[in-house]
Here is the input.
Amino acid sequence: MKIKDLRSTLSTIHDQFPDRCVANDDQLLDFKIKLRDLIEELDYNIDVADCLSMLHESFEDLEMYA
Here is the structure.
């Protein structure tokens, strides 16, 4: 998969999984800002694959795929 394809897929992910969308617009914006701030505050570089890989592992830890 190319990064361009991933970007396109992620931009419409709410349409792909409407039954897994539970946050309202304000909550989503708050989460986005917190996540962006966390990434910016890291003392090391991180990129898309790193973020998505660790997000997946967090989902597994929290059993969110159930």
